[in-house]
């Protein structure tokens, strides 16, 4: 019996009778290919019930292949995102809910069950008789849409019945094909340095080799042998950073007898030879903030330690999580700084680079770990910040070269945008809960409006602003194009859906002409060289054709 199973059993035996499940809302989702549900933060529990298709769920740093014979639970105060397979429509119910239990103290209050030991359902839970789950969800959704309080009360009652079915039929056996594939995948992760064959993996999954090849590729979107190669390259990168082993020894330790064949595979996967990669990783640089990561990447330097998270630093997490050995917390970093300090003490970096906004208490402890540079954030622009870091690291020539290339890229982008936009005006709007703000941060001002010379529909004495407006105000400003920065959390997303369906919103000229584009906080809210280069690229993509929100 594993830990989750033990906690579920304890919850069932001791707590279930006293728990109160309260449904917040239920949504039926249908997506295909690029229609992904971006990584978003949740204040409540999330229950996912798949009714058709295939896709993947990322729960913080864990990833699950979505199946119809299981349920998926995301606890509060975490992030989750969903990516459907391109070949199939992914269909599922998403239910937001809270769990309460009456306290036993003299006040007799209701306590929300948020911690794992109190409400142990998290991630994937296989369910026998899973075919009944969509039936419950259909009924709950129909009742939830009704206007009468009695019908909605019955919907809450049916939600209780749904959880009764889940808890009663939850099981943890590894007999289904999904778990069998997971066993094969786990075998590769543990024995990547050995001579792993398809025949061997198929025996572990208890299927024929041909069926295993097809099933693995369809389930994970990558062949088993390609995944094995990724594991080996990833492990080789870690060894290159963490030791001074010879290339021949590293090749042998990750499963390649021929170091020249390994070098070819490595260069094809990474883009540079193993020798150049090791040279670039000789110094252990700790990036104490996402802005620092973005500037280091412009200098072609991958940090040894950095804040990584699938939502808060999505681009760096997706692109470099296997290249950065030490993952600092990126979630509300001001709250988790003590844990980050301990990670850096253990990592023993050669240098640390942070922002001068870092608290004096943090600075004092960082200074004890390694030589530290604090980059002035408000007093210097991003180009000066990049040059300061480059001088500190002895990479001034690289910084000059990168800035020259950036200027060339900006000029090419200016010409393209001028051809597409002409005299059209653009307005950036931030959406938070049921509020709208005309928005411009430092990156938007310096890159979008100044470097790219895009015309704003909003006149302001301030270069950076965040002004509350109404839908009527937006209509009166008459922007030719709208860029919408929508906060990725449940209440805002729900309000935004309602806003898009409203008459006043549909009457805004930019919306009516399919000139409203949703943009991501990454890279638009990061003040760094790499983020600004990506804003230039994203701007050209945004305005190259119709992309209605």
From TrEMBL:
<dbReference type="GO" id="GO:0043565">
    <property type="term" value="F:sequence-specific DNA binding"/>
</dbReference>
<dbReference type="InterPro" id="IPR037923">
    <property type="entry name" value="HTH-like"/>
</dbReference>
<feature type="domain" description="Fe/B12 periplasmic-binding">
    <location>
        <begin position="284"/>
        <end position="547"/>
    </location>
</feature>
<comment type="similarity">
    <text>Belongs to the bacterial solute-binding protein 8 family.</text>
</comment>
<dbReference type="Pfam" id="PF12833">
    <property type="entry name" value="HTH_18"/>
</dbReference>
<dbReference type="InterPro" id="IPR018060">
    <property type="entry name" value="HTH_AraC"/>
</dbReference>
<dbReference type="InterPro" id="IPR003313">
    <property type="entry name" value="AraC-bd"/>
</dbReference>
<keyword id="KW-0732">Signal</keyword>
<dbReference type="GO" id="GO:0030288">
    <property type="term" value="C:outer membrane-bounded periplasmic space"/>
</dbReference>
<dbReference type="InterPro" id="IPR051313">
    <property type="entry name" value="Bact_iron-sidero_bind"/>
</dbReference>
<feature type="domain" description="HTH araC/xylS-type">
    <location>
        <begin position="182"/>
        <end position="280"/>
    </location>
</feature>
<dbReference type="InterPro" id="IPR020449">
    <property type="entry name" value="Tscrpt_reg_AraC-type_HTH"/>
</dbReference>
<keyword id="KW-0813">Transport</keyword>
<dbReference type="InterPro" id="IPR018062">
    <property type="entry name" value="HTH_AraC-typ_CS"/>
</dbReference>
<dbReference type="InterPro" id="IPR002491">
    <property type="entry name" value="ABC_transptr_periplasmic_BD"/>
</dbReference>
<dbReference type="GO" id="GO:0003700">
    <property type="term" value="F:DNA-binding transcription factor activity"/>
</dbReference>
<keyword id="KW-0805">Transcription regulation</keyword>
<dbReference type="InterPro" id="IPR009057">
    <property type="entry name" value="Homeodomain-like_sf"/>
</dbReference>
<keyword id="KW-0804">Transcription</keyword>
<dbReference type="Pfam" id="PF01497">
    <property type="entry name" value="Peripla_BP_2"/>
</dbReference>
<protein>
    <submittedName>
        <fullName>AraC family transcriptional regulator</fullName>
    </submittedName>
</protein>
<keyword id="KW-0238">DNA-binding</keyword>
<dbReference type="GO" id="GO:1901678">
    <property type="term" value="P:iron coordination entity transport"/>
</dbReference>
<dbReference type="Pfam" id="PF02311">
    <property type="entry name" value="AraC_binding"/>
</dbReference>
């Amino acid at each position: 019996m594993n830990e989750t199973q033990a906690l579920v059993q304890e919850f069932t035996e001791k707590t279930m009778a006293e728990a109160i499940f309260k449904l917040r809302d239920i949504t039926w989702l249908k997506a295909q290919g690029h229609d992904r549900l971006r990584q978003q933060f949740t204040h409540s529990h999330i229950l996912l019930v798949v009714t058709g298709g295939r896709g993947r769920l990322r729960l913080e740093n864990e990833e699950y292949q979505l199946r119809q014979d299981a349920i998926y639970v995301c606890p509060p105060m975490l992030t989750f995102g969903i990516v459907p397979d391109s070949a199939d429509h992914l269909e599922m119910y998403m239910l937001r809910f809270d769990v309460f239990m009456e306290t036993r103290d003299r006040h007799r209050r209701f306590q929300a069950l948020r911690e794992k030991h109190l409400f142990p359902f998290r991630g994937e839970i296989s369910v026998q008789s899973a075919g009944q789950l969509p039936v419950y969800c259909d009924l709950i959704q129909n009742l939830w849409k009704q206007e009468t309080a009695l019908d909605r009360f019955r919907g809450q009652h049916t939600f209780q019945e749904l959880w009764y079915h889940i808890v009663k039929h939850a099981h943890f056996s590894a007999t289904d094909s999904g778990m069998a594939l997971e066993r094969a995948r786990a075998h590769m992760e543990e024995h990547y340095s050995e001579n792993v064959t398809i025949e061997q993996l198929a025996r572990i999954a208890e299927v024929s080799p041909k069926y295993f090849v097809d099933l693995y590729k369809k389930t994970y979107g990558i062949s088993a042998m390609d995944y094995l190669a990724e594991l080996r390259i990833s492990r080789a990168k870690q060894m290159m950073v963490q030791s001074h082993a010879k290339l021949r020894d590293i090749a042998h330790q990750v499963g390649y007898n021929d170091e020249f064949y390994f070098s070819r595979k490595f260069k094809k996967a990474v883009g540079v030879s193993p020798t150049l990669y090791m040279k670039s990783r000789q110094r252990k640089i700790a990036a104490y903030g996402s802005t620092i990561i973005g500037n280091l990447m412009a200098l072609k330097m991958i940090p040894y330690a950095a804040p990584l998270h699938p939502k808060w630093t999505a681009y760096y997490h997706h692109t470099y999580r296997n290249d950065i050995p030490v993952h600092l917390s990126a979630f509300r970093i001001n709250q988790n700084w003590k844990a980050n300090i301990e990670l850096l003490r253990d990592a023993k970096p050669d240098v640390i680079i942070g922002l001068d906004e870092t608290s004096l208490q943090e600075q004092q402890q960082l200074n004890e770990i390694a030589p530290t540079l604090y980059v002035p954030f408000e007093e210097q622009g991003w180009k000066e910040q990049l040059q300061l870091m480059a001088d500190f690291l002895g990479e001034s020539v690289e910084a000059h070269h990168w800035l020259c290339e950036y200027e060339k890229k900006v000029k090419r982008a200016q010409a393209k945008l001028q051809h597409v936009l002409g005299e059209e005006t653009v307005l950036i709007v931030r959406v938070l809960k049921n509020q709208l703000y005309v928005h411009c941060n430092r990156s938007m001002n310096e890159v979008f409006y100044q470097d790219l010379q895009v015309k704003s529909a909003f006149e302001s004495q301030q270069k950076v602003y965040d002004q509350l407006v109404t839908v009527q105000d937006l209509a009166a400003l008459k922007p030719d194009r709208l860029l919408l920065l929508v906060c990725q959390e449940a209440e805002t997303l729900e309000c935004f859906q309602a806003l898009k369906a409203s008459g006043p919103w549909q009457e805004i000229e930019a919306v009516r002409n399919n000139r409203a584009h949703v943009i991501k906080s990454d890279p638009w809210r990061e003040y760094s060289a790499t983020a600004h280069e990506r804003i230039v690229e994203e701007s050209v993509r945004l305005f190259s054709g119709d992309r209605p929100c």
